[in-house]
Amino acid sequence: MIPSAVFFALCLVFIAVVTLLLQRRYLPLRSTPEYLLVSTFLGLFLSSSIIVLVPIDLASASSTDDGSRGIVLPERVLLVAWRISYWLCFVLTWAILPILLSYSDSGHCSPQKRLLQSLRENARYHLIVLSIGAVGLIYFFLSSGFRFYSIKGLLVALSYCYALFLAISLMGHGLVAIPRGLFHASSISGTLLKLQRQAPRAYDKLLEATSNLEAVESEVMLVRQRKTGTALEFQEWIEELAEMAQVPESGSRSGGLLGSSRPSVPSVITEEYLAALTQRLKLCIHRRARFLSEWENLVQSAADAQSILDSKSSQRLTFTKHFASPTLLENISILNPYTRHLFYFHLLPYMRIAVASLLSMASIMIVWTEVVHSYFPKAAVIRYTVVHHPSSSSGKIGFAGQCISSLWISYMCFAAYYSLSAVKVWGSYALVRRGTSASSACFYASYAARLTVPLAYNFVSFLPEEDIVNKSVFYTFLGKLINLTAISEGFNDFFPVLVLIPVCASLFNWYRRIKEIFGFGDVVDEQEEENAFETGGWREGRDLIERELQGTTTGAFSSRASGGGVARSMNYGSASAAGPARSTAPRSRYTDEPAEEEHEQDEGVLRGFVHRVQNTLDTVEAPRWFKDVTKQQNRPRWMAGN
Q1: Which residues pair with 67 in a beta bridge?
Q2: CA distance 598 to 532
Q3: Which of 199, 220, 216, 160 is nearest to 296 (CA)?
């Protein structure tokens, strides 16, 4: 049997390897600074280690002198592990990663000025937070006395309450969105229809990002052409901007926006202007890389879905990479074309339905436990899946209960992380394969470290308090600080009930209804799917995807650097002029049968009836006698318009 310390060390090694693989997937390792790699690694690694540390702590707390079940560690080891994990996550979340985020976004050329600007921005933010927390500090002093322990409890409680508010809100949306997405993905034709509906919006975003980037690059070109005045003082900085923007040496460019609308450049080039220009250029480059990656992923997914549908007749399935060469793992396949067809066309949809059903039950159990665990603790069903030996003298939680508790915490955290990409409040940050910006990497690493601790403690509150929770090192280290006052203790007990609000908002589509009534509330990307009659609908998306697959727009959108990163084509101006207009795009090979069936089901009975009646009235030709009567009839003078 593997000793507990060795098992814990192996878990940490596995988490470290997975974290490195995630960094390799989303970050350009060669161009990313070491300080950014280390800080993001620590944020992801420490937050993930909590998923393993909590079950070990619970099993150790439930063990007795007669023996223990599962993986247990000494109390001193657990206390040191919790101190390292929590306080490093706390410092990364509130100090290091926010400073690095602002430092990466800064447009100054000098590292000292970038650091000063970052410190100034974060100091302004923390000053606002401290001014708000002053009221809480007075309350803590009145409740527990004037001592250092009260200040420490205030910092922990405020950080926990703020993070729990975000975690519950994001998790509530993810608990509904993840199973629903799997249910929708089980329908191949429905997936293709959804991708076709999303294509026009994705294409428009890419066009807008390309246009904005061309405008900024044109401004950089004009600045580079300045050879007199203050521009000579910043010539090296301007050359770095030109290299970043890939401005040609000759200073001329065919097409683009420069000929139609020349950007305005101030007569005096200052350091502040160049810093703002650098910041705008970096933002436009990352936004275009993001939308280019999203467009290519959408087109590739649509092509794969169509290939799966086409394999129904031939019983053979082969996927084609349209934007990148297959990786080594993708070249190694144990499936031949026939078995690949059986797997993707017949087996995978049922597997997705099974996983979606399982996750739906898990979501229901989490929501139910969040609602009842404070009022009716014995009705909290999750505790019975973890505590398998409630009356045992050798430990109430065994290895199976530890594995299940890790799965519960992982699903709760994954639901919250999943919603980060769907909520449009943080729309400027996105994960791009091998092209994630430094600010986006800091953002996601900071929220991974910020959300894991409150979700883990929220899960611990589901379990029996007297027998397990109060004896755990996690509660001794963190729980007592959170429950230092009656308000913070009540917040932890009763606030999770509000998970019903994001759950119902996502389940019953309250976001769109709020937007229709009040004009705002469209905060989730999944609620943005266009109706079939808006902006061309799925037919327009089908034509755009087909044009991309035929190579009509590859000159502007589908070029990639040899190193695997997202590259921009030098044929500026072809982005908006590539191919014919959308309305005149040729019919594609995408068949209408699967899409039209889904389309008729989605448009609704009343709306579909009105649409058909309108089409009928528009196409009916009036009888000849009716035309003669209307011609001979004299209209009144007041209707003549004279």
Answers
A1: 64
A2: 11
A3: 199
DSSP 294: H
> Contact at 8 Å (CB) between 299 and 196?
no
Q: How far apart are CA 26 and CA 565, in angstroms?
A: 10
Question: Which residues 6+ apart lie within 8 Å of 606 measured at CB?
Answer: none
Q: What b/e readout covers 41-61, taking b as 16+ CB neighbours within 10 angstroms?
A: bbbbbbbbbbbbbbbbbbbbb
User: Residues 6 or more apart from 520 whose CB is under 8 A from it?
Assistant: 514
Rounded distance, CA 56 to CA 468, Å? 12
Choose among 208, 199, 202, 221: nearest CA to 284: 208
Tokens of 397: 């939680």
The two most distant CA atoms of the chain are separated, in Å, by 107
3-state SS assignment for residue 67: strand
CB-based contacts of 527, cutoff 8 Å, min separation 6: 509, 511, 512
| Ordered mean pLDDT values, 10 residues apiece, the chain (642 residues) | 84 96 91 92 94 92 73 91 92 93 91 93 85 70 65 78 90 94 93 93 94 92 82 86 78 48 78 92 93 93 94 91 73 84 94 96 95 88 88 79 94 93 75 90 93 92 84 87 70 82 87 67 49 60 91 49 37 34 40 43 46 51 53 50 45
**CA 189, CA 176: separation in Å to the nearest integer?**
22
Tokens of 526: 């999944």
Helix residue ranges per DSSP H, 70-187? 75-91, 97-105, 111-144, 148-185
User: Under DSSP, is residue 509 helix (H, G, I), strand (E, B) or coil?
Assistant: coil
Looking at residue 525, what is its pLDDT?
56
DSSP annotation of 530: P
Instruction: With H, G, I as helix, E, B as strand and everything else as coil, classify residue 601.
Output: helix
Pull the structure tokens for residue 487. Answer: 């308000």
562 Cβ contact list (under 8 Å, min separation 6)? none
Output the pLDDT for position 515: 67
Contact 435, 441 (CB under 8 A): no
Task: Please give the Cα distance from 29 to 26 (Å, whole number).
Answer: 9
Residue with tokens 């979340």: 93
**Rounded distance between C-alpha atoms, residue 376 and residue 263, angstroms:** 65
Neighbours of 351 (CB within 10 A): 12
Q: Are 574 and 556 in contact (CB under 8 A)?
A: yes
The C-alpha atoms of residue 63 and residue 14 are separated, in whole angstroms, by 26
Paired tokens of 283:
């933002």
In the numeric block, the tokens 């420069």 are attached to: 258
The Cα–Cα gap between 291 and 563 comes to 19
**Three-point CA angle 467, 470, 471, nearest 5°:** 75
For residue 64, list its beta bridge partners: 67
Kindly state the DSSP code that residue 27 receives in the 8-state scheme.
S
Q: Per DSSP, what are the bridge partners of residue 566? A: 560
- Please state, in angstroms and rounded to a whole number, the distance separating the CA atoms of residues 522 and 516: 9
Tell me the residue type at 524: V
This prediction has a pTM of 0.80
DSSP 32: S
Taking the C-alpha atoms of residue 607 and residue 602, their distance in angstroms, rounded to an integer, is: 10
CA 449 distance to own-chain centroid: 16
d(CA 330, CA 437): 26
- Spatial CB neighbours of 457, under 8 Å, sequence gap ≥ 6: 160, 474, 478, 479, 482, 492
